[in-house]
Amino acid sequence: MEMPQPQWEKNSQKNHDSTTQIRQEPPTEVLELNVSPNPARQILETPQGTEKLAAGLEEDSYKSHRSASEMPGLLPTSDLWYCPDGSFVKKIIVHGQGLDKPKLGSRCRVLAFGFPSGSGLPEGWAELTMGLGPWREEIWGEFLEKCLESMRQGEEAELQLPGHSGPPIRLTLASFTQGQDSWELEASEKEALARQERARGTELFRAGNPKGAARCYGWALRLLLTLPPPGSPERTVLHANLAACQLLLGQPHLAAQSCDRVLEQEPGHLKALYRRGVAQAALGNLEKATADLKKVLAVDPKNRAAQEQLGKVIFQGKKRDAGLAQGLRKMFG
After folding, report:
1. Mind spelling out the 3-state secondary structure of the chain?
2. What is the pLDDT of residues 117-131, one digit of tens each?
């Protein structure tokens, strides 16, 4: 049954609903896949790093935006905005009007320059809908959406990220329509949006884009977390799918946590048990990995992926024990 379309989404393109589950990946592929780091992912890790970036912004010239009579100097603190997660600093060149800012469903008229080629983001004028569309799926789109959420109508700003060697990204928010905060949506609207994000995430996962898929699953989970108890059963599937992405991205610690969320609700969830076993093996927790994989095989003895992974864990354990024994012999021999 098709859920009713949210009020603010009537003119947006519909996403195709999908109930397809993510196919379990062979454990060898899960453990051996390496993902090259994206420079845009180099988030500031220290306050000193953030201050250095801000100082660099403050020293830039603004001759085209200031009168000749103005004395050069550092920007007032009010002209700098630090993204709460430390991923970028926004320098306000022209202040916007009013107090409202774009929310979920707002259609934003944006002028953008400076995004790197291949980022999937427009150069020049574009209309972007907050919370919807493929433009949000890559890391640069994630930064752009965070920036737009902090802007007012008519605001012009520069966006600079650590690791981005090109010129600062220029962004103007010319106008936007009224949107809604996620807590203002009806439960049915949140669930409909979450299903769309899940379906899109599955498409991206199948296309070999676990990063984009993980973002979609994460957005869906954030929507569903605001539902009153007992919440949506969709959360279990989303956490399990997110764990699959995290394994492919080389994040076994996060994958184990996602599986824990699933198993808290469904202790016998086989995919979550398998994926947690793979994650524990990657973390070197061989006893925990063995326990999870044996639980899978107790229910599904013909599960080939679990059989192969358990064999690898047992081999790792024997190799580790042999190394310890050799070390003891050298120590006391």
Report:
1. CCCCCCHHHCCCCCCCCCCCCCCCCCHHHHHHCCCCCCHHHCCCCCHHHHHHHHHHHHCCCCHHHCCCCCCCCCCCHHHEEECCCCCCEEEEEECCECCCCCCECCEEEEEEECCCCCCCCCCEEEEEECCCCHHHCCHHHHHHHHHHHCCCECCEEEEECCCCCCCCEEEEEEEECCCECHHHCCHHHHHHHHHHHHHHHHHHHHCCCHHHHHHHHHHHHHHHCCCCCCCCCHHHHHHHHHHHHHHHCCCHHHHHHHHHHHHHHCCCCHHHHHHHHHHHHHCCCHHHHHHHHHHHHHHCCCCHHHHHHHHHHHHHHHHHHHHHHHHHHHHHC
2. 777 787 899 999 887
